[in-house]
Design goal:
Blueprint lengths: L1 E2 L5 E2 L1 E8 L2 E8 L11 E5 L4 H4 L3 E5 L5 E6 L11 E8 L5 E12 L6 E8 L12 E9 L4 E10 L8 E6 L9 E9 L7 E13 L4 E7 L11 E5 L4 E7 L11 E7 L7 E11 L6 E8 L12 E9 L4 E10 L8 E6 L9 E6 L13 E13 L10 E5 L3 E4 L8 E5 L13 E9 L9 E7 L9 H4 L3 E8 L5 E8 L14 E7 L4 E8 L3 E5 L5 E5 L2 H5 L6 E7 L10 E10 L2 E6 L12 E5 L5 E4 L3 E8 L6 E5 L9 E2 L5 E3 L2 E7 L10 E5 L5
Parallel strand pairs: 4-48
Antiparallel strand pairs: 1-2, 3-4, 5-15, 6-9, 7-8, 8-15, 9-14, 10-13, 10-15, 11-12, 11-14, 16-26, 17-20, 18-19, 19-26, 20-25, 21-24, 21-26, 22-23, 22-25, 27-43, 28-39, 28-42, 29-38, 29-41, 30-35, 30-39, 31-32, 31-38, 32-33, 33-34, 35-36, 36-37, 39-40, 43-47, 44-45, 44-48, 46-47
Amino acid sequence: MANDGDGVHDSMNAIRCRTGLASVLCVFLLTFTSAQSRADDVVINQFNGAGEVSAWHFDYGSANVVTSVAFSTKDAKSSATSGSMAIQVTYGPSFQQAAFTANLPTPVDATTFSSLEFDVKVDDASGLDKFGNALYFQLALRNGSAFSYNKVFQDNVAVVSTNGGWRHVVVSPLTGGVDDIRAITLDLYDGNYASNGTAKIYVDNLKFTKPTPTVDVLVSKFDNSTETDPWQFDYGSPNIVNLTQFSTDDADGDPNSGSLEIQAGYGPGSPQAAFTATLNPTVDASTYLSLEFDVKVDPASALDPSGNAAYFQLALRVGTGFSYNKQFADNVAIVSTNNGWRHVVVSPLVGSVDDIHGITLDPYDGNYTAFNGPTIMRIDNLKFTAPLTVTPPPPPTASLRPALPGLNLIPQGALNRESIATHGDNLGWVGSAKPVSYAVTIGAYPDAAHNGFQTHIFLDPSDSGPDTYADYNRPNIIFLDIQNQADGTTFAAFRYKTNEPQHNTFLYSTGSLGGVSCPTALGTWTMTFDHDTNVTLTAPNGTTFSTNLPPAAAALFSGPINASLGGQANNNATVGETAVVTRFQIANGETVLADDHFSSDTELDTSFWQPAAVDPASVVFASPDSRYWLAWTLPDTGFHLQSTTGLSNTDMWTDSALPGVTYATTKRVLLHTADLPDTGKGFFRLLQPAAP
């Protein structure tokens, strides 16, 4: 990329789009920067032959303890030309310790090293203590001319069934004195043998590592609220109280950044609330080194009886089916160090990670005995680390398309209901002497490759106001379910349920009475009730389907009705796609009860409609002066949207105040005529300053 002398590296993509009399030229200047470091391994022993074992000798321990050290052909990497060091120690009530030391040929300064690693295996025939362990394994670095004892690892070792019985140990970071390491001591102890027993272990691939050449693959630093927008409630307990929002509390103390705040109200029967963000582009992490993030429990957070806020789980969602691949799971609680922040490193990544489509934060807690206020957790600096040779994500690419006036439905989660609802007016049909019809006109719809997209009408007889998940939560519901199909057609199903709160099984079984198909989703779909129980669906091409609602069911819908109009993605591949509703009508015979022309109205009629969406930003009213959707791909961390009236050398670029909203894999801005910097035109760019 060229450097133009202003400290910013620039590249440029130009897009020109003409619609009507106006022309908008969007210019995006993009850069990517990363931190890098060098690395090498410092191998102490690979135990390729008996000569490497001879340096290890018994140093100290219990009197009369029986020990032996020998070369073994058992190799942690199954190499036929290498092996390991076999150590045998006979433990008993008076034989509890045996330490072995090897002097290093040259002292090692490990102050710049990142870790110490080795492999250890317990022989299947080894003696075990009363707890099933072979011994308590300790490793110490002997530092300085006095050979000071600096213990850096200690843990029980036992027989394991994975990886041929080998356990790989990584000690990171190194602590204590490591600037002048003269020797390494393996200090093997066990005071739990009730009678004499001989423990046998193998040690292999003992080495130090320097920092690996890495590049950060940043998911989000959560610098502002637009970076928290993609994180949406995905699944969990019915009616659990939850929200995600931007917090100015930053793990690094940066006043210009922040974090993702998650609030979840756990209680009896409501133990789970999971939040997911879709990645674009998808990530192949098969060669990556780690996944890292910071997590903090707010001191004002509710805690369970064990003092934890939640059992925090992080999963990578792999493949087009968004398979759940858990990488981290642990209790999180309030900590007093580092301003309450805990840094988490997951290394190595586990399972299939070659096609990551999303990340899910899945906090769970079944230990709350009452709803006593929300847990408050914050997440920051979510990133992968990759070897230096891995190509970082590409910078954002931009697109521009005309905006279609109307009610734009853009679901942000597979199961999110993104709707608007009436204020509970007398919009019902039961008892009417004339047919009552509910009609929705669709002006744009996702293509067949993004099938399963749902446009719906819910009719709810409840008088308690709108419900985002009315089809699930309410006991009684009428549901017109319009979905596009993989073959390019669209099908509208009539569904209902009665006396089934907090569930929807009936809707998709006995309460599914059939439907009507049409070659296109575009046009007007009508649901008509006659004599309370007769139901007719009419597709845009005039095709009809008739059925009957049981009289006892119809009786439950007498009185005022809340009508909801909205959309739902139903699958992850369709999240972020758009349907545009241009008109909604309700008629009682010749009497019009409601007729909202979304495509020509200058604003949404809030005296008739109210929000009923999981994510209010997913229901966008585009007025006739809406000109374009300006969009760019993610990630866009560090990029700023700017605008100007022209491209001459004297033109001044200024940061745009237009709020970019994240929709699945893109960030979008709806441009109105008044948003263009100049009459009929404007220039926009994305700019990321180079690292200092």
